[in-house]
């Protein structure tokens, strides 16, 4: 970093002015070169937020798809795929996930949060007088390539709400 001390010293000793100016130019050129070096790339934090855009029908172990993606960032790869409903970890570490499911009208919705092929957490929006919602949240330790998704559990057909009333989100917490 260039300081002003060499310039002050140059002004006091007029016999060394030319050398001082060269020193200052040398410092300036070093600073310019260090600024031109590419900076280390900052890892983008894997995070996504998606919501249901239409009335969804699920049955028999089907993965829920949240089609309208509001945020989807993760460095070199996009972590959440709205076509499959699956989040894929792009970085090793701890993650936080949540899913809010609003049953359509008087329908119950049975669902689960999966880490790869294993059930991690169960969710249930019960049948009420109108629509009823439930939220599940979890913290998971993931490796690169691990998959997390919301999946229907049960055999019967069930419906969950559209227009952003049902959401799925996740983000990287730390190493």
TrEMBL record:
Family annotation (Gene3D superfamilies): 2.60.120.40
Keywords annotated in UniProt: Secreted
Source domain of life: Eukaryota
Keyword Secreted set for record: yes
Protein name per Swiss-Prot or TrEMBL: C1q domain-containing protein
Ranges for domain C1q: 44-175
Compartment annotation: Secreted
Annotated InterPro entries: C1q_dom (IPR001073), Collagen/C1q_domain (IPR050392), Tumour_necrosis_fac-like_dom (IPR008983)
Cellular component terms per the entry's GO annotation: extracellular region
PROSITE patterns reported in the protein's UniProt record: C1Q
A Pfam family that the UniProt record links to this protein: C1q
């Amino acid at each position: 970093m260039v300081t002003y001390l060499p310039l002050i010293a140059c002004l006091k000793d007029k016999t060394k002015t030319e050398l001082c100016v060269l020193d200052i130019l040398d410092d300036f050129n070093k600073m310019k070169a260090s600024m031109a070096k590419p900076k280390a790339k900052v890892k983008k934090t894997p995070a996504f937020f998606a919501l249901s855009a239409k009335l969804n029908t699920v049955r028999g172990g089907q993965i829920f798809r949240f089609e309208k993606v509001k945020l989807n960032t993760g460095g070199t790869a996009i972590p959440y795929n709205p076509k499959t409903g699956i989040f894929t970890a792009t970085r090793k570490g701890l993650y936080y996930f949540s899913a809010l499911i609003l049953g359509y009208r008087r329908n119950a919705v049975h669902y689960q949060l999966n880490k790869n092929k294993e059930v991690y957490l169960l969710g249930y929006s019960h049948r009420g007088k109108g629509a009823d919602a439930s939220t599940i949240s979890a913290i998971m330790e993931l490796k690169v390539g691990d998959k997390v998704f919301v999946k229907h559990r049960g055999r019967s057909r069930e419906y969950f709400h559209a227009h952003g009333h049902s959401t799925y989100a996740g983000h990287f917490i730390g190493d």
